[in-house]
Amino acid sequence: MLSPMNSHQQFWEEIEAIFDPKVAAVVPALFAERDSTYNPLANIERALRRPTKTNRKYLVVGTVGNGKTSELYHFADKLGEHRMIVLVDLWRHFQEGVGDPGALSRLEPWELLGLLGLAIHRAGEEYFGHKWGAEPKALQKALEDLRKSDQEDGPSIDVVGLAKTITIAASGVAGAIVGGPIGALVAGKIGQAATDTGLAVLESAGKSFNWRIGLPSRKRREDQDVRQVLDAVNGMMMALHQRYGRRLLLLVDGLDRAADERIRTLFVDSALLGDLICDAVWTAPRSIRRAHGHETRGFETQELCNVPVLRRDNPREPGLGLEFYRALVAKRVEAVRAKLPKPGPEDPFPEAVIDRLAYYSGGLSRDFVRMVQIAAGEAWDAKAESVTDAIVDFTLREARRLKEAELNRKEIEQLEQVMTDPERRLPEGEMAAALVDQQRLLAYPNETTWYFPHPLLTLALLKPKLS
Q1: Which residues, including other chains, have CB under 8 Å from residue 352's CB and lie 6 or more apart?
Q2: What percent of the chain has pLDDT over 70?
């Protein structure tokens, strides 16, 4: 018979759950804000608050796991009082709605436009309370005409039904008919009362079957052959603007997981996405900046780097980004304590423990959250009052093994070369680029963008003398 958990174990169980590296911090009460001096979304927010008739479009690039999704939700929350906002998570849609994540890397520009049209339809009807006219029929006809020209069979493309398969977040119109703020969606998991942010999530109502997208056999089409889809989507956005008098801000997350070749197809070879008549912010892989520079058509590229937990002049010393992770832990501990009948340990995460985990996370939020989760599990086993140095040692050892796995001799030499470079520059060549994509070589934004191996790799594997 299992013995009952003590209050400390109940606390650590909830901590382990709330530090889930697979879940972005979309609830405002759990969000820790980065210093605006190294957060490009702060600059974009200021730009979008200025009155202008020009449609502004941005690509926010970075590696997977550095907090782009959390930042995008917070960004939407802050702009909701000024804009109509529709946020689409493409990665989630292809995982859950389509059931084929690989199709994201085969997506054609006109297919992506069609998905955005479905998202706008759902936001208009179910969140803003808009009564659509002929606009959805125009989108349906455009999509069906293209499918027929490909000689593909299937049931009619039901725009209304398909729209319900896309999970979206929306805000920005007073009196919108959906009342569930985003905090309410996960209140049961974190014990946090719903906060009235105005940013509501409409969950998927099922899978998408009657419009197959991202097929490997589908041929590439030129922009001039698919303009009718763009026109239909623009018509939907214009209808919302005329009805509510607010400009639409489109936020699109998830393309940072798409293959480099597909990113080129969407943003370099095609101008369709740049011709949408709205302001837009898209997340994209960091590689687009390296591979295509300023070739993107109609988009300004901004980079969201890792939180600067290292100093450029002496990377063995922690940097100014530690405050971010202290705030992140404090917010989640507070949320757990609000849920439990007893507050739990007085000082579960001593500041020195947080700082050590933050430093060795390399400023990657997902790595930090994963390590805190590991530490919480160890604290549960020990029925501990706080995370000890011994628990941190174990956590770092486990995380280090994952980060070191399968590194070869040449890659190790490349990383050691960066460590001994006093300028901390990115080496030329595809190997260095691949190490960045693997999050073994990290970019930091303090001063100018500079590079250093993931600190976990410096625990045992990389041991050169630093200059």
Answers
A1: none
A2: 91
Is residue 207 within 8 A of residue 99, CB to CB? The reply is yes
Structure tokens at 455: 């600190």
* Beta strands 168-171; 84-89: pairing state: antiparallel
What does the block give as tokens for 433?
């680029």
Which region among 20-24, 181-185, 273-277, 377-381 has the lowest average model confidence (pLDDT)? Answer: 181-185
Contact criterion met (CB below 8 Å) for 159 and 121: yes
Specify which residues 352 forms β-bridges with: none
Rounded to an integer, what is the distance from CA 424 to the centroid of its chain? 27
Residues 6+ positions from 212 with CB-CB distance below 8 Å: 152, 154
How far from 377 is each of 23, 98, 380, 386, 403, CA to CA, in Å?
A: 18, 34, 5, 12, 20
> Strands, DSSP E only, in 228-278?
248-253
Kindly give the residue spans of alpha helices, DSSP state H, lying in 245-305: 260-267, 287-292
Q: What is the pLDDT of residues 273-310, one digit of tens each?
A: 999 999 999 999 888 776 666 667 788 989 899 999 99
The whole-angstrom separation of Cα 130 and Cα 132 is 6
**Beta strand segments in 131-187, E:** 168-171
What single letter denotes the amino acid at residue 387? Answer: V
Residue-wise DSSP of 194-211: ----S-EEE---S---SS
Taking the mean position of all CA atoms in its chain, how far away is CA 171?
18
Q: For residue 310, how many other CB atoms are within 10 A of its CB?
A: 25
- Which single residue is written with the structure tokens 């803003």? 128
Q: Of the candidates 86, 284, 111, 366, which has an alpha carbon nearest to the alpha carbon of residue 199?
A: 86
CB 282 within 8 A of CB 256: no
CA atoms within 13 A on the CB side of 16: 14
Pull the structure tokens for residue 39. Answer: 């957060």
Tokens of 13: 């169980």
**Lookup: tokens for 179:** 């009342």
- End-to-end CA distance of the chain: give it in Å, rounded: 58
Closest CA to 114 of 156, 162, 155: 162
pTM equals 0.89
- Run of H or E residues at 89: strand 84-89
Distance between CA atoms of 150 and 146, rounded to whole angstroms? 6
Enclosing H/E stretch for 371: helix 365-382
Task: Evaluate whether 445 touches 286 at the Cβ level (below 8 Å).
Answer: no
Residue 258 is which amino acid?
A
Q: For 312-355, what is the HEC assignment?
A: CCCCCCECCCHHHHHHHHHHHHHHHHHHCCCCCCCCCCCHHHHH
CB contact at 8 A, 200 and 127: yes
Helix or strand run (H / E) with residue 189: helix 187-190
Q: Is-contact 177 138, C-beta < 8 A?
A: no
